[in-house]
Here is the input.
Amino acid sequence: MNQIIAGLALTLLIPGTALAQDVKIPERIEKLAAKASETVNVTLDGPLLQLAAQFLNSKNADEQQARNVVSRLKGIHVRSFEFASEGQYSEADVAAFRSQLRSPAWSRIVDTNKKEDHEHFEIFVKQENNHAAGLVIIAAEAKELTIVSIDGTIDLKQLASLGGQFGIPKIDATAATPAAPPASKTAPDAKDSAE
Here is the structure.
């Protein structure tokens, strides 16, 4: 009985230990590497993640910002598979991973599905104490599958700084910026004035 009470007390003293649900890459996803023509497999946890962050150049502003983001993370896991033909993975493979994101802590914030192109893109965020504590991206296409799982305190505004680092795809923030309208003419063209 004393051991049970001591264990319960220890669990309560270490917040999040008993209730934390770490997202794991299922074995059926890992086995897709054998079918893929190209793979990316990044697993950085704890001290290894912090060691990898030391290789980021602190004199480069972008890399320094990425280093600051990484300092608050517990892990980065990336699995990306490119296949020579369609049908090399199934929706059941992805569903095995996605099922871990059904707990109340996780919310799907983006879900796009282009059925004619066999493209499905999802972003999930884990909330703890009103802060983002995890992020998962699932990008499924007919001949490609990418899963990115980031565990730890995340400032979503700074998250883009991880793009291009640790196997995380770089997001072009300028692509979403609308083009500037064409400049209006204030003086007639030489052609117009000649007429």
